[in-house]
Amino acid sequence: SLPYKGKLIPRAKELRKNATRQEKKLWYGFLNSYPVRFQRQKSIDSFVADFYCHEAKLVVELDGSQHYEEAGIARDKERSAILEKYGLKVIRFSNLEVDRNFQGVCTTIDLAVKGGQKHKKELPSYDYNKRTGILSGAQRKREGESNLANQEQNGICREIGARTGGDIYIG
């Protein structure tokens, strides 16, 4: 179990009630029905993570414009370093990426979960879903596209480790 500060629980509840449009889209359009459980606004240490998957030890953060200012970048770097000490992987997406490339965001999360599962149990293919626009692996093969090639082509996966201290930023 991860450590947390009890005083953050009311704040986490407030953040769930007042989720951003992009957080709602990702939660209701993908994560709440994903085959591996995600929690939203999870208190970890002295932070509240936007989304957390215990099985994959994965934190998903959605970043607004304040995260791209000097102070925001420094805070995110420090926060990620603390979370990584607990063996967690942190991936970040810009709000703009959620708006413009929702399928790519969902695919990237799916790949991160499958790569980070503790027990490496076989997950079902996440079949095409009208809410997300995700294609199953079989459907991608039939259409001649692979996850990685598609991500590279669309430019959704670019690591900027120098700026973030190892976080993966999308968008």
Give me some keywords for this one.
6-stranded mixed β-sheet, 171 residues, 18% strand, 8 helices, globular, 6 strands, 43% helix, alpha/beta
Query: For the report, how would you describe the main beta sheet?
Result: 6 strands, mixed
Number of helices: 8
List low-confidence stretches.
127-171
User: Pairing-aware structural class of the strands and helices?
Assistant: alpha/beta
Kindly state the number of beta strands: 6
Principal-axes geometry comes out as globular
Calculate the terminal CA-CA distance, rounded to whole Å: 31 Å
Helix content class: 40-55%
Give the radius of gyration. Answer: 16 Å
Order of helices and strands: HHEEEHEHHHHEHE
Strand content: 15-25%
| Sequence of strands across the biggest β-sheet | 1-2-3-4-6-5
Average pLDDT score = 75
Give the gist of this structure.
The chain is of the alpha/beta class and 171 residues long. The protein is 43% helix and 18% strand.
Strand-helix topology:
Layout: H1 9-17, H2 21-29, E1 39-44, E2 47-53, E3 58-63, H3 70-85, E4 89-94, H4 95-100, H5 102-116, H6 137-142, H7 147-154, E5 158-159, H8 161-164, E6 168-170
Parallel strand pairs: 3-4, 4-6
Antiparallel strand pairs: 1-2, 2-3, 5-6
How would you describe what is shown here?
This protein is α/β, with parallel strands linked by helices. The protein has helices at residues 9-17, 21-29, 70-85, 95-100, 102-116, 137-142, 147-154, 161-164, and strands at 39-44, 47-53, 58-63, 89-94, 158-159, 168-170. Strands 1-2-3-4-6-5 form a six-stranded mixed beta sheet, sandwiched between helices. Strand 2 (47-53) and strand 3 (58-63) form a beta hairpin. It is globular and about 35 Å long.
